[in-house]
Amino acid sequence: MAALAASPPFDALGAAAIEKLAAASRIVEYPPGTVILDAFRATPDEVAVVLAGAVQLWVDAERAHDPEDPDSLLGPGEVFGLDATLTGKAIGPLAVAAGTVRALQLPAGSVDAALAGLERPTVELPRHHPAEPDVPAAGLRAEDLLVTRPLVVSATVSVAEVAAAMGQRDYAAVDRGDGVLGIVTDRSLRERVLAAGLSPDTPVLRAASGDIGWVNADASAAEALILLLDSGADHVLVRGRDGGLAGAINPRDFIGSSVTAGLTLHERFLRAGSVGELQALARRMPELLGHLLDGGLSSARVLSLYSALVDAVVRRMLTLVLAAHPELNPDAFSWLSLGSNGRRESTLSSDVDCAVVFHDDLPQSEIDRYRNAFVEVVRHLAEAGLTGDGHGATAAHQLFARSRTSWEAGARAWLDDPTTDNAAMMTSLLLDARPLSGERGETLPGVAELFAELRRHTGTMRLLLEESLAKRAKVSRLRRRFGGPTRSFDLKRHALLPMVNLARWAALIVGSDALPTTERLRAASGTSVLPQRRAEILIEVFEVLQAIRLRHQLAQVAAGDPASDLLDLDAVSPIDHSIITRAVREISAVQTRMANLSRYEDPEDWGRPDPEGR
Q1: What is the pLDDT of residues 414-470, one digit of tens each?
Q2: Which range scores top for mean pLDDT: 216-220, 544-548, 602-606?
Q3: Model confidence band, residue 571 (pLDDT cutoffs 50, 70, 90)
Q4: 490 inside domain
């Protein structure tokens, strides 16, 4: 009983439950080399606790189970077989006795019954919003927001004819004839025709807005809202189930939906008249995230919406600060979001990494004046709860405030000699860069263009891979530290960041310019570096870990503590503990595969299709 009571997750059980579980258990001794568990072949019917000896563990069914190279080595007090038991799937691991092993074997049914009583704590947040509507956010679809049937007109029809045909509609779709649709609205008719003094006989194409975003009819309402906020457009088009245009959604269509709170807060950001007002509004974002999560919106959607809101705060803060410096031209630079916000994966603990690209004709003395203003921007954002990078990756730092030519020259230098000038770090930051404001002509060229020749620099590719694998997923960090004062686990450092790094590198291999980690994994799926099965597992792992991270940080903020990525393993539910353990092992297995592949294959072959299609 003592060993069981000291082994997580069973250490969270009461004395009566421990006694009952111990009574159902049996102690087994295994000779060296014995396969104790092979949960790749079948779902285990027992969960094991190591009492004495060491157990070799492999979490990758496709990897050769070399006794000299296990994924991890378990000692007394550690548990295996729990993750497969809880999920009911044959997902591994393979456990082999490294020497003579004594283990406590617990029936899976008894484990399920014992752990069923351990519920995940709920997050209670103060409420300042109206009650949830009858339809949860997760159930409201884009097609549910459509009010009128679409009006589609030819690009050659006159603006006068279109204005008459629109009637009560607030838009018309313009068929350009090349498979692309534009949107014309009352506002675009006024601004592009009447204000320009054009004739009513002008073809409507002159008044149409292009590059309108699309969502599928069965997409969530939150996805449509995120696209609206992110693009700044008046409408988003909805693709019907037959592939044609089903209609368009504008911000007013969200009135009464469960994501209206996000839209309302976003609009208030844009109207904030002072830095203090904007800071007060920004501090309400954690409350909003809890509101949306409790309303049924998935963690991935909540975090995407949060990234869009952070963008809005940064844009407005730039406007307010520069308004106090009339000598500075806001069109002289482009602001780039870097890091997690560049990838649209911000959480409450994320730094606001950023950089700027200046006009080439701006002298350094002028750039330094802008940097002084950016110090104010970064400080005000930190006071609003959006902290800057502690290592200086902000637009206030000279290294991140450069002319376009300087950025391009730096990129070429990093490719030529990746061992100097923090080349790997700077390259990684640029690969995550996303323009947030400024004139389109002054942004950096696309990542694919900037690093077009990177794959031909084999030495650089190898060094980038080494940098990507430098931060390894740490299974050992999850083990109980007997005699230690704490049992903490850094979810970002030892799980999420290793996955972000390998996804960025894998996307680079296949030439993808995707930014979100899950999209990068999908882009590289089915290649030799990332077989399809591995990619699918990592995508699921990333989304689950982000969900655990969000719940954890919301609980911290609700308790009055700053959001962090450190988990107290004594406070983590047994199911979450098992999920995290399994996730870290999966990430570690992919890292090991990539490291091994780099030793035996040329970089030119890294992006080839996986021959077994797994």
Answers
A1: 777 777 777 778 888 888 888 886 544 445 555 446 555 665 666 667 777 777 777
A2: 544-548
A3: confident
A4: yes
What does the pLDDT read at residue 120?
Answer: 39
Angle made by CA atoms 43, 47, 53, in degrees to the nearest 5: 125
Location of structure tokens 């009571």? 5
Residue 474 and residue 376 in one domain = no
pTM score of the predicted model: 0.69
Cβ atoms of 436 and 337 within 8 Å: the answer is yes
Interaxial angle between packed helices 364-383 and 275-282, expressed in degrees from 0 to 180 and rounded to the nearest 10:
50
* Of 13-27, 66-80, 454-468, the least confident: 454-468
Q: Is residue 582 part of a domain?
A: yes
Residue that terminates a domain, selected from 109, 142, 165: 109
How many angstroms separate the Cα of 420 from the Cα of each of 219, 228, 414, 461? 46, 41, 7, 15
CA distances from 240 to 15, 30, 169, 218, 376 (A): 57, 60, 19, 8, 47
Domain boundaries, position 513: 454-605
CA 193 to CA 197: how far, in whole Å? 6
Tokens 């400080």 found at = 379
Distances (CA, A) of 548 to 342, 347, 531, 544, 554: 21, 11, 26, 6, 10
Give the span between the Cα atoms of 507 and 514, in whole angstroms.
7
Dihedral of CA 227/232/238/244: which sign? Answer: negative
* Three-state DSSP class for residue 35: strand
Calpha distance 243→255 (Å, rounded)? 27
- What is the sign of the dihedral through the CA atoms of 574, 576, 579 and 582? negative
Q: Which residue has the tokens 């159902």?
A: 24
Number of CB atoms found within 10 A of residue 378's CB: 23
187: left (phi over 0), alpha (psi -120 to 50) or beta: alpha
The 3-state DSSP class for residue 595 equals: helix
Confidence of residue 480 (pLDDT cuts 50, 70, 90): very low
**Claim to verify: residue 458 and residue 601 sit in the same structural domain:** yes
Do 422 and 526 fall within a single domain? no
Last residue of a domain, one of 109, 128, 158: 109
Distance of CA 442 to the CA centre of its chain: 27
Q: Does the residue 536 lie in any domain?
A: yes
Report the distance separating Cα 37 and Cα 97, nearest Å.
Answer: 10
User: Does residue 470 share a domain with residue 398?
Assistant: no
Is 491 a member of any domain?
Answer: yes
